[in-house]
Amino acid sequence: PATRPRAAADSGAAAARAALRPRAPDDVVAILARALPLLVAADSLLPATPAGRELSWYVRAELEDAAAALAAAQRLVFDATAPAEQVAPGSNIEVTETLWNGGARPVTWHLTPDSAITVGPGELATRPLRLSAPGTVTEPYFLRSPRQGDLYAWPEVDGSAGLPFDPPLAVPFAVTVAGAPVRVRQELTYRAVSAVTGESRRPVRVAPAVSVLLDREAAVRPRDTTTPLPVVVRLAEEVGAPVEGELRLQLPSGWTASPLAAPVRLAPGEGREFRFAVSPPAGLRAGRYEIAAAFRDAAGREYTRGFRLIDYPHIQPYPLFADAHMAVTAVDVTVPPALRTRPVGYVMGAGDEVPAALAQLGIRVEPLTAESLGAGTDLARYGTIVIGVRVFDTRPELAGANPRLLEWVRSGGTLVVQYQQAVWAERGLAPYPLTFARPADRVTDETAPVTMVEPASPLLTVPNRIGAADWLGWVQERGLWFPRSWDAHWQPLLAMADPGQEPQQGALLVAPFGTGTVIYTGLAFFRQLPAGVPGAYRLFVNLLAGGR
Fold this sequence. Notes:
This protein is of the alpha+beta class. 20% of the residues lie in helices and 35% in strands. Strand 9 (189-194) and strand 10 form a beta hairpin.
């Protein structure tokens, strides 16, 4: 029964395409206005069966397209602005709606079901509107619930599942054009003005009144250290209203903090950092512990999450939320005194978080640049130098400092080279030849069994004896860019493989060079150390110690 109105609507669409002149779109307004009710009629005649509901989805999509086409042909411009970029959940939003009629005929703007105004050709009409913000913050629907292992929770939320983000806050407009109803939803935006870039539009988002974030999500400490752990909490007022209350840490049993709580008073838009010194109890066992922060305002509302705004000129801003908690890993690790008293030189790699991770063990890490490696620094002050991941790809100027670096190794230094791509081998930067396959060998299964080819090697025994437990809890992968073949000077220490692969032995290679040592490792320490993996810390300390 829906065939006739649908066929008539299709005929009207074809007539509109034939009559369309881009410089005079008004000619197709009447045609589109006749087609619109026909699509509504076709949808109403579809049966309530699975096939009918599926077809209805397509008809309604065409109905939206037809309404948008009619509005464009009539040259209607819809706009909705708010006085602030961020609003609190459930708050009132004072919206200004604007309708401009650029077409040749008048239109009717329905302000409420019982009231309407006529907007003539070339006229601009505005009206104030008060809306209630949603009760939930602007956050991707698949991040609202905790992940199930490595899988996102995937609820069906307002038809959003499968979309990259939730639909933006939008304001409805109801207009009659040439007798046909047009229903559109216009994104609600904030009009930002800059003396440099001029006017820009930014989507209005729902944010918590107070953002609560810790300065890091993970921390590591040697199990037997007595040094208090510094914890920094950042509070920020986000919706333009003063707040006051109390910030308090939530600690594992037996842990203490100085102070445990702090009074807070924030002006609109103000952000402040609060510092705490947290001490675990004596005899702390190795393991993972949780520290959290909570802010309670004067009305008794509690805030335990915060966000950072992802904001670049080429994309729309979007908040990235996180819980205000920190995972603290107590590691049973022995750090030689020399690593705390004598600095470790470090050449920063791409997105490198390893130095900050090592500093948590009390290891003195000093950054090295191309200039300091070239001639500006006496390298004899370092017992160990570490090369960050992909250094020779991302910082090609460092290749010129490589001869001096190898000469330092020859005189007794320990050089730890984290994963590099093929340029390290192909340009002769390694002390002895080795080759990488294309694509490079890697082990992507973070639980892949690891065999110690040389279990008595000092790098696997001093000062921490590496065993099966040290390969537990690794994240994302074992490692990448393992060499496929190497000169006889190199000695492989480990073997591992993904399911179905032959064992790979390129994950950890060591070679003497003069009176010093060169270590190459494709193990993904750059992932494991920031994630607080205990075994990765124990093994990396061994590499820094060079077996001493």
